[in-house]
Amino acid sequence: MFYQILLQIFQKLNNERTVSAAYHILRGKRSGQTIQDVGLFQLHNYFGLLPKLPRAIFDEAVSTFLQYSWLIMQESGHYSMKKLGLQRAAQTPSFLFDGWHYRGNEQVFFARLSLVVQSLSYQKEGIRSFSPISKDTQVQSWVRAFLQDQQYQSGHLQQQLLDECLRVFATLAVSESNKQLALYRLSGYSLPGWTWQQLSSERKETVLDSQLAFIELLHTLLNEVHATNNYPLLGKIAEELRVKALLTDSTQQTAYLYDQGYSIEQIVQIRKLKQSTIEDHLVEIAMNEPNFSIGPFVSYEEAEKVWQASKQYQTKKLKALHEVVNDLSYFQLRLVLAKGEV
């Protein structure tokens, strides 16, 4: 699965970026360039999928792709996909990830759920003291408050939570073997959850692939829970984990000033930042805010020229587009590409 995901990312970034761009997307790097790449190449589902991905694991995969003649590298670090690589990418399945909206928070959800299940399991046996499956003090505090709020001592919470889990799993368009990942990771009284090594050995795949299948399952589950009001307990466990503020903190400050009517030059003075940084923020806003108009910076006719050039030359590289539409600045080009074709 890891190789298939990389192939899909490399295919979309083909000949436009370095291999490091793919690494930063998977890690969820909050830089202006990475955020723009996500929007420009429609890679939202993979953003922040593996926040702790070691560079060595990534580089090893790239080396394998080179050995398989799927990629060819340039001295600049840029790459292009060879015919065999493009064929392999076309054969990869569609995945149900939603990294853009969770960015690792799916792990918080499962940590909460795991500790709730463990607590209820021990409570049913009448045992008040046990070693919590999650060592995160924030998770422990959250679960403690949740259990008290749900009056867990009445004994009804176990069946309610079980009913919701059965119902939500029945709706998910995920294989049964992947659904079982959640079950085997849970712990209860006298029944410890499986380690990733045990699971990957049982599934005959790498640990990373098992973890990716688990993340896909959690993203699918969370989106189902957030889409309806049919799962009040799971909805509570999932509260505040879906990212709503899609802009970086610094960009939000720029957006506020821009909405107040300040010009780029004035925002530069107020925030004491470089003009290029403020321009980065505006490009990020254009990518994420549907109501943001790029009209004050570039006309509709100019935007059309950019998209025609992009289609004709099959590129979104700024340097290549600037050579064709040289009457526009790089900032204007980036705004057009970030906003998308209308």
TrEMBL record:
Residues 250-337 form the Helicase Helix-turn-helix domain. InterPro entries: Helicase_HTH, YpbB-like. This is Helicase Helix-turn-helix domain-containing protein. Pfam families: HTH_40.
